[in-house]
């Protein structure tokens, strides 16, 4: 069996014309300061300790992987010389091992060389059984990482891996410096404040000041491998606020050069864009706004060691009929019209892109309140006392619905609450500051992985164009729990034997058409069949680019800042 990397391009769209000028040449630091605003502020600069996009993106300016996906969704080398394949000798014929070679002369920002030992250390760091790693699914089936020489490592897998580009690929799986993190492994990892806040990296910038949930100050890395990059001498990364304020800071006032994730109503975005100092840009990829349904019991009456864990199943959301009724009550077309317009597409899929992996599942598109009521009746949930809330066996159909604080999400919450009220479900709304909700503090009760609520709404996506690792997040046992400091990617605690078996089959399958069939089947189990997760909208990645900023290539498949080393100041 032979393997040829088959990488699919992304579909991209642009609201307004975007500068595609090539980066100006010159000496490093020639353009003074770059100003970036993320309305969700990073809480940590180690993506192995947080599944949040904001942490991934912020750390990507400092920490680098062996390779990542470009704006077209194609794999490109970063620290590696090339992408290994069977054809170029980088992967064994039996698909059980892949060998990566580091570029010559790559150093950490402290001037020491990046070596194969650092790569091996990073794998051991994430796979340490005494710690929790937010990117554990990227290392599934990794037997060991062998140091061949100073610049060569071989990853050995437990079984053939037709798609081996998960470990050390993408901004969420960068290389850590072994010397810096040597004493931060296992259970000690979350407590290493200096290391997690100020990582030594090989990327274009160096952290000089990190204020969690606020701001980051960086300077150009004097030891960066390209003598003419980055163009900017300094970088001010501001976090916090809201999407509307961030958009205005780029497109109305010009205070910032780039704003991320402009989650707002389409008419608001259009109005702000008239400010004249910048323009919105967007690109469709795999980003899906969804409702995750907690399969475990989040009741505060339970002891902390079992609350929201698989030891305590949810008292009624484990009933598929309840979950299905909740989905049937939602008008996804209306949600998109109100929340995203051209920058969104209603979807019933967890994996909406690339097209070859997208299921033709459309059953969720039609709202049917009466059918939802009938389904709850059949399940034994009845409003016996006429107060509008259904009951069964003395238990009221009452849920806590949480999400991050954002105008669009609060609009969605209000609409969905009304629809669920109409079918007899009582809903308490809760919104949490995004920096906390998507933060990495294992002690906080309000993070989305801890899931101290019945349902929650957010969006995420996967690196690159192959969804295997993304789907593997929902494997049994990969749920957040106290023993892993609440790290884990199976957020809603889903567990299905058939699903896990198909994941194993996917990991052994090389033929693209067969991989696509398995991906669609896995998607349908999560969505159509189990209703454990309710997809809402396939969101475009939306950002704002200042008129004097060049080199930006919006990337729906990796970090927004994946090519920040190429950004520069224009004359405009």
Sheet with most strands: 12 strands, mixed
- Beta strand %: 15-25%
Q: Provide the CATH superfamily of the domain at 286-540.
A: Dipeptide-binding Protein, Domain 3
Mean pLDDT: 92
Evaluate the radius of gyration: 23 Å
The CATH topology of the domain at 286-540 is Dipeptide-binding Protein, domain 3
Q: What would CATH call the architecture of the domain at 286-540?
A: Roll
Summing up helix and strand content along with how strands pair, one would put the structural category as alpha+beta
Q: Report the principal-axis shape.
A: globular
- The proportion of residues forming helix, as a percent range, comes to 10-25%
Number of strands: 21
- What is the number of helical segments per DSSP (H or I, 4+ residues)? 14
Low-confidence stretches: 1-23
CATH top level of the domain at 286-540 is: Alpha Beta
Q: What's the end-to-end separation, in Å? A: 53 Å
Supply database-style keywords.
alpha+beta; 21 strands; Dipeptide-binding Protein, domain 3; 572 residues; three-stranded antiparallel sheet; globular; disordered N terminus; twelve-stranded mixed sheet
């Amino acid at each position: 069996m032979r393997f040829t990397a088959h990488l699919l391009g992304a579909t991209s769209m642009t609201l307004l014309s975007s500068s595609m000028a090539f980066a100006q040449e010159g000496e490093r630091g020639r353009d003074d300061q770059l100003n970036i605003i993320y309305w969700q502020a990073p809480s940590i600069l180690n993506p192995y300790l947080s599944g949040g996009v904001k942490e991934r993106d912020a750390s990507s300016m400092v920490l680098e992987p062996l390779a990542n996906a470009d704006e077209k969704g194609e794999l490109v080398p970063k620290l590696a010389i090339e992408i290994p394949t069977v054809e170029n000798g980088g992967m064994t014929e039996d698909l059980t091992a892949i060998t990566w070679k580091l570029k010559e002369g790559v150093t950490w920002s402290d001037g020491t060389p990046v070596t194969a030992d650092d790569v091996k250390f990073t794998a051991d760091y994430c796979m340490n059984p005494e710690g929790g790693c937010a990117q554990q699914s990227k290392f599934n089936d990794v037997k060991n990482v062998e140091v061949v020489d100073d610049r060569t490592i071989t990853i050995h897998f437990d079984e053939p891996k037709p798609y081996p580009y998960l470990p050390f690929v993408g901004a969420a799986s960068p290389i850590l410096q072994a010397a810096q993190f040597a004493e931060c492994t296992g259970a000690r990892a979350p407590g290493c404040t200096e290391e997690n806040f100020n990582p030594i990296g090989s990327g274009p910038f160096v952290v000089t000041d990190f204020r969690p949930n606020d701001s980051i100050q960086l300077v150009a890395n004097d030891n960066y491998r390209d003598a003419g990059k980055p163009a900017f001498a300094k970088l001010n990364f501001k976090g916090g606020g809201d999407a509307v304020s961030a958009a205005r800071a780029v497109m109305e006032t010009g205070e910032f050069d780039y704003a991320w994730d402009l989650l707002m109503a389409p008419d608001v975005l259009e109005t702000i864009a008239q400010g004249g100092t910048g323009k919105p840009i967007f690109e469709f990829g795999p980003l899906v706004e969804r409702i995750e349904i907690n399969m475990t019991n989040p009741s505060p009456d339970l002891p902390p060691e079992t609350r929201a864990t698989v030891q305590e199943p949810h008292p009624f959301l484990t009933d598929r009929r309840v979950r299905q009724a909740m989905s049937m009550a939602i008008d996804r077309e209306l949600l998109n019209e109100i929340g995203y317009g051209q920058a969104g597409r209603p979807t019933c899929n967890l994996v909406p892109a690339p097209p070859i992996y997208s299921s033709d599942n459309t059953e969720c598109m039609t709202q049917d309140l009466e059918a939802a009521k009938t389904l709850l009746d059949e399940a034994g949930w009845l409003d016996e006392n006429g107060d509008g809330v259904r009951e069964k066996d003395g238990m009221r159909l009452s849920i806590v619905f949480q999400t991050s604080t954002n105008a669009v999400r609060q609009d969605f919450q209000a609409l969905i609450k009304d629809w669920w009220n109409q079918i007899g479900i009582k809903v308490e709304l809760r919104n949490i500051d995004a920096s906390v909700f998507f933060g990495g503090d294992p002690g906080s009760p309000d993070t989305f992985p801890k899931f101290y609520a019945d349902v929650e709404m957010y969006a995420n996506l996967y690196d690159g164009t192959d969804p295997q690792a993304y789907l593997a997040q929902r494997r049994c046992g990969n749920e957040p729990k106290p023993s892993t400091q609440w790290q884990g990617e199976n957020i809603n605690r889903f567990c299905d034997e058939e699903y896990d078996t198909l994941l194993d089959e996917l990991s052994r399958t090389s033929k693209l058409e067969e991989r696509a069939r398995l991906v669609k089947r896995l998607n349908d189990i999560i969505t159509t069949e189990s209703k454990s997760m309710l997809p809402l909208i396939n969101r475009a990645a939306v950002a704002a680019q200042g008129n004097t900023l060049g080199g930006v290539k919006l990337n729906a498949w990796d970090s927004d800042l994946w090519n920040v080393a190429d950004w520069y100041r224009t004359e405009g």
